[in-house]
Queue: 2 jobs
Job 1
Amino acid sequence: MGIEMNDVHVKDGVDSETVEAVKALSGTYKYGWNTEIEMEYAPKGLSEDIVRLISEKNNEPEWMLDWRLQAYKRWLELKEPNWAMVDYPSIDFQDQYYYARPKSMIEKPKSLDDVDPKLLETYKKLGIPLKEQALLAGVEAPDGERKVAVDAVFDSVSVGTTFQTELKKAGVIFCSFSEAVKDYPELVKKYLGTVVPVSDNYYATLNSAVFSDGSFIYIPEGVRCPMELSTYFRINAENTGQFERTLIIADKGSYVSYLEGCTAPKRDVAQLHAAVVELVILDDAEIKYSTVQNWYPGDENGKGGIYNFVTKRADCRGDRSKVMWTQVETGSAVTWKYPSCVLRGNDSQGEFYSIAIANNMQQADTGTKMVHLGKNTKSRIVSKGISAGKAQNTYRGLVSMHPKAKDSRNFTQCDSLLIGDKCGAHTVPYIEVKNNSSRVEHEATTSKVDDDQLFYCRSRGMGEEDAVALVVNGFCKEVLQALPMEFAMEAQQLVAISLEGSVG
Amino acid sequence: MLEIKNLHVQLEEEDKKILKGVNLSLEAGKVHAIMGPNGSGKSTLSYVLSGKKGYEVTAGSAHLEGNDLLAMAPEERAAAGLFLAFQYPVEIPGVGNMTFLRSAVNSQQKLRGEPEMTAGDFLKAVRAQAKNLKIESDMLKRPVNVGFSGGEKKRNEILQMAMLQPKMCILDETDSGLDVDAMKLVSQGVNALRDGNRTFLVITHYQRLLDHIKPDIVHIMAAGKIIKSGGPELALEVEKNGYANLLEETA
Ligand SMILES: Nc1ncnc2c1ncn2[C@@H]1O[C@H](COP(=O)(O)OP(=O)(O)O)[C@@H](O)[C@H]1O
Ligand SMILES: [Mg+2]
């Protein structure tokens, strides 16, 4: 039995004239520069040969290639989904490159010191120095030094991973996916595709065939990971898709907090990004997964930008296991993304905190799925959607209580904020309850940035854009608070930057 | 300090005239009061001076220390030293009161090209001012005006005023909704800011506020015009006889 709920409560907001004229946003994307570097490409297009080539470039064992080929066969039989509220020109899958790596990476550098200076410079410019230091400048942590280990992925390859030795001492494995296939084949074989099966959906299947790199993390039983782990994805090459794969396993009683960031240069032609993220969480373990997605959103007329089709899922396999997804989605021309939680273990918990900002011609269709299978499972969804310009922002969320998920609870809070009157916000909740001891609560509001609020701020000396940023940051507060400290500050600034030019 | 000449204002959306030739001249250091019946245009005057949208100035001028106020953005007016304590302070969910204050102080300093106050100095100043106004530290952490009582909102406006140290303060019915104790606190807060140079325009309905904040000059506003000006005794006259006599006198 499925109920579709659409009783969205509309808050009063003064109609905002402030925002009639939407100024051009072009020029405000900070990461739009590109790195001039010699690249090696696979031939354009997608075929069995390309799949074999990618596998060969990664020096993969036979079983990995077989897995890919199986996925590729499957993909050929699938149709591109069209149920999401996004509208984009059809993607010509033969008109792109599926593999691109800097020539300086053909021979894998032995240490970070040997990495091509151009690549090191690129990450430095992005604010992610690939050095082993207490990271993220200017932040003084109350609990002493806070370190962040980084895996840097550039187009199709991982450039390097910091703090590997120190992590290994704690028993933590943090490496690129391609290394994991070679060095930890048993772990990879045991868990790969068990959360997001090869046949899951069109883009996940495509990813399974052509993924090039990504990050692999294993936290052994009882270990609290001694530092934050993170991956920074950079798409640099033109006409090239990025297909990364992330697999994180938190063994019994372990804990890890993982961060993910992404940017790309400004290009006139849209580019495809289709990632798969699998999280496995065993008894009493916990994963915090935070994303700041800032892919190039395209220009104010909707030209260029990243098409972002991502499958992220956490399997709370163990009893009392916990997962928390936090995402700040500000970039991409098209976003199609629903980080999900399968609450299989008894007493397991899933949380989803999301800020999705869409400005100009951006389209975002994002949300989550909470699948309650175990007894006494709990989930919480807090979604904040902000639309400006002519953007469309859709929240799509599924909450499903299975017959065995006795005494389970879900709470969903879904708020939309509109800036101007040419944008849209849509809320599409799906709720299925198949037992009678579980409870689902859903609250939704839609409001407009209020002229009185902006005037109040301005009468105290704040500029118009600062006023908008302040009001919007207030609207997002519960989600910003869920982010690790370093990211929260970055995210606040990002909220301000993404909305530049949204009032005028 | 503030010079308003022949100010005519109508609504932008509809053809409704609200201010019909307001003249006011406020010397530095003085306290002027404006009294007048509901709907006479007092709040409109304060909004137009601080730059709220939706009003069209069809004639006249307003200058703050010789600067053309009407040509400036609201934030520039604030940085130039104008402050309005709102009749209905606005709620901003999710934004901490302290964050808001800090952002206001920093923004003004930036606009004026002054160095930013350090976090330590700012904190000290806020604590001291909050103490005078009996504002608990809990109220500083809560989101701006959200869930504040009427009295808390008004005290919060005075706190902002104290932190921003404006040259020209407009108080729009700051006394409405206050009990006697709260009115005393607010008045003390205002009086503490009187330094012989800072100028006040106190809009009020009732004489009782003017017992605490002693005005130099009292104006009566009706139907978009100042119909009479005089000394503090004018406020007492209104209190005793209401506006009816005055309105007839000038009709
Ligand atoms: N934004 C507005 N829209 C419609 N009417 C307005 C608006 N602002 C003011 N008015 C009208 O203008 C007149 C003066 O209002 P106001 O300045 O609030 O008076 P006061 O503060 O003296 O009570 C009233 O008739 C009020 O209804
Ligand atoms: Mg009024």
Job 2
Amino acid sequence: MEHIVIIGNGISGVTAARHIRKLSDKKITIISSETEHFFSRTALMYVYMGHMKYEHTKPYEDYFWKKNRIELKQGFVKTVVPNQKELHFSDGDKMHYDKLIIAAGSKPNKFGWPGQDLQGVQGLYSKQDLDSLEIFAPSNKVCRRAVIVGGGLIGIELAEMLCTRNIPVTFLVREEHFWNGVLPEGESKMLSRHIKNHHIDLRLGANLKEILSDENGKVRAVVIQETGEEIACDLVGLTAGVSPNIDFLKESGIDLGRGIKVNRFLETSVDAIYAIGDCAEQLEPIGNRRPIEAVWYTGRMMGETVAQTICENRLEYKPGHWFNSAKFFDIEYQTYGWVFANKKEYEEHFHWKHDDDTKCITVAFHKESQLFLGINTFGLRMKHEVFDRWLSEKRDINYVMGNLSEANFDPEFYKRFEGQVLRAFTNKISLEYKKQQ
Amino acid sequence: MSTIEKNMSLTGDVPKNINALQKIGTAFGMLGLFIIVLAGFNVSMPHKEVWLTIALTALGGGIVLFAHGSYKNKLAGIKNDGVWFKSISSRGYLAWIAGIALTGFYIVLYFFAELLGLGIDGAANTGVIALFDPLSRVLSGNAASQWFVYGTLYTVAILAFGVKFIRKYKGNRYEQLRTLSVMFFQTAFAFIIPELMARLNSDDFSLPYNDLKNMWPLNYYAFDQWRIDQFINAETIGLVFLLFGILSIFVVSPILTYKYGKRWYCSWVCGCGGLAETAGDSFRQLSDKSMSAWKIERWVVHSVLVFSVVTTTAVIATYLGYDATKYWLTKDVFLIGVAVFLGVLFAVIWYFKKEELAKDARYGAIGYLVIILGLIATHYFSGNELFLFEAGKLRSFYGFLIGSVFSGVIGTGFYPIFGSRVWCRMGCPMAAILGMQQRLFSKFRITTNGGQCISCGNCSTYCEMGIDVRAYAQKGENIVRSSCVGCGVCSAVCPRGVLKLENASMNGRIDSNQILLGNDVDLMDLVNKK
Ligand SMILES: Cc1cc2nc3c(=O)[nH]c(=O)nc-3n(C[C@H](O)[C@H](O)[C@H](O)COP(=O)(O)OP(=O)(O)OC[C@H]3O[C@@H](n4cnc5c(N)ncnc54)[C@H](O)[C@@H]3O)c2cc1C
Ligand code: SF4
Ligand code: SF4
């Protein structure tokens, strides 16, 4: 029987395994050095905050794997030897594979800061990171202040987490406003204010210079590049993005860039080896998408696609329209299509913000053709299905604004804002029209 | 890393500490309880009305104050910080103490009311019950009973914890309106109106205690002979009430459930649900989400329903039989009527919805039908008294096992251990009926938002009915489950805005296809190929 081996039990690897099982009777093994069972990485924060226990983050009950004849192996793959079709584990074990799927995920970025490997300096990615957080920041008695470096999605999650234990947080963000590299200014500024409302010491335009150690090799303080200021702290969270976790493949002969290079069929340069999820780097660009996409649902989709290929139905990876979501403390964020922080030359934005400073939207459209390009929403829930359809149907901005209520996904009895949004939009248009006259 | 530091992590956690206001609130609540306990020891309390007012105000006010301390400085958003660290909400020491205390209270209430001071055979009340006499006199004109004490405390709990809930879900209008609704129905329909109606009673006129919203089969004694007799004797008013009771079961409820799902009752009106949603809110995460729990649930709750149908039929048939002259309905007609009704109901479901029933559900349905019809037939042919068991015995056994032990002692007493809706999920025959309809003939569903789910598990964790919401959401499937009471909390706690409770067309409501949007359409076709 053909043996399919998958490195990584995250969403990508597990989805691949589940679908291979649906389609075939092949022998399947999933390897992970992190945890025995698949858990939802996106829920790590809720465990620390006490919303859930680790058990709750597992999407499948423990009996699931045996029932579906998916073998689980805990161990760290040290090297992959493609010409023998073998994996070598750090404990000396070996395993043969017929086909190999690499779904090794990411690791937190470290940019060579002095002191970045001290005790109490960590990222937030793995279950081990969560455990380490419980050691270095269980309470505000043990951790009198934490410094977070890097204002992205994981940084703000870490800030929210520490807040729930009343640990004072200093948040170093390189950009002028929070997540300004991705979000247009109006949204960024609103989020910056929201973060400050949660009593976070938010430092915009601030870079980390170095991390200082105490006599035991544990973090004592950080120094800020711009001002030279020293901030005493017991924990430093490094959340300046992630990059593919591929160090163990250096000797394997598989073509690597920042990630594992794959074609549109998710095949690597080596026969019978595939790569999916966070660790895969697309050789060919797909629309406006980046070559490496470290998000949950693309990992899932790659898993579904590669399962088809492995089960004798070679299929191209074709993600549909871009979408994503996140949450910034109490403000939910959804995005459909493309809204760029730095507008492309053809791109025009319409921005609306509610007076309460927790809700806003930005709609992007084409200057000339008025084609609807994408939308960011904050504090309002929108229907994925509707925007997906509008993007496919190539609707124009006027249509989208006029029919916004069709896309509303807020719970029943919630106040609706489509009227306000539409009025603001028509005002803006008539103003511009007058200007042109 | 020294072990000392590690140990501190077990003690120095902040989210489970409580602030000054919360402490004061707790002290007030304890004071209220203390007065009631003192009364229980027959400590002499002149001016009972004053003491009762103090006790209830302290109790309710303490809870409201605690809520104020918890949420006053918080922005609108999810408020589940530290739930699994706090002893009371994570089956810790406090939870067990609370569970044992509550269970003890229920046992005394149901089986040893004299310990609370109930005056037997016309004797004056003493103890706790006497403390509540003044309020009872104001409302109904009579002295209090253990049920009046219970009803008062129950109402205070729903009101005070309701305020807490409303503050916790600041910014969520669905949760707030729903809670105002249960607070209203409890206070007006379950508590004040029936008490006031008792004032109408005199020597030649009496109505049974009647909570209009408490329908059969939740109200298992709805059709007991003494109630029916009282209704009939009360002539017009009584008949109106009786008719209303029957209409709500066979007309009002099916229409509302068709339009809005069982939530119209379970999380907007019902008193059991009301308590679970307010006082029980801190325990919703304790429900068991495993597949095995779901299997047990389905068998147990439907068995209770069958038990309740059989019992009620037996009770009614019996008094129709031996008091034949008093009622226009005869025993035979009644029994045949019930059999025909159930048979037709079954046939309709089978004809229209067979495809939607899982295999075990089909076997179960057939099995149950055969049992019921068999029992009815036995009764029909076996003279008056016997229904395999004697109807009266069956009825008291049902009252004891389901009405007292299951709904009270286990259902509420064990809130801090099994979660707040064990009764609603496993034991309530009303929930079973509404659930069946919700699954088969209703516009209600929870819609999932395309491909946005990140499988985090918040929804499943906080579903009090133990539904594994995530299992559906991560596949992009609608959630159409008979047990869902539409509390909306899964939608409230989802950090990605994936879930929405909706009433819309029945077409395509249950779609087990994986329609994860944003994906390649051809791939989706392949994935859904079975
Ligand atoms: C805190 C946090 C929050 C997030 N929130 C969101 C969100 O809200 N929305 C979103 O879209 N995305 C989010 N993400 C990103 C998302 O979780 C990832 O994109 C996704 O988990 C990647 O899945 P994967 O299967 O590719 O890899 P992973 O989940 O990283 O799984 C890889 C596994 O492989 C194991 N492994 C790697 N190398 C080896 C080896 N040599 N031997 C053995 N085992 C190995 C790793 O230990 C790991 O368990 C978040 C990420 C984090 C860290
Ligand atoms: S599925 Fe959602 S709405 Fe239904 S009972 Fe569970 S939490 Fe409440
Ligand atoms: S539906 Fe929401 S709460 Fe439930 S698992 Fe998905 S993202 Fe989490």
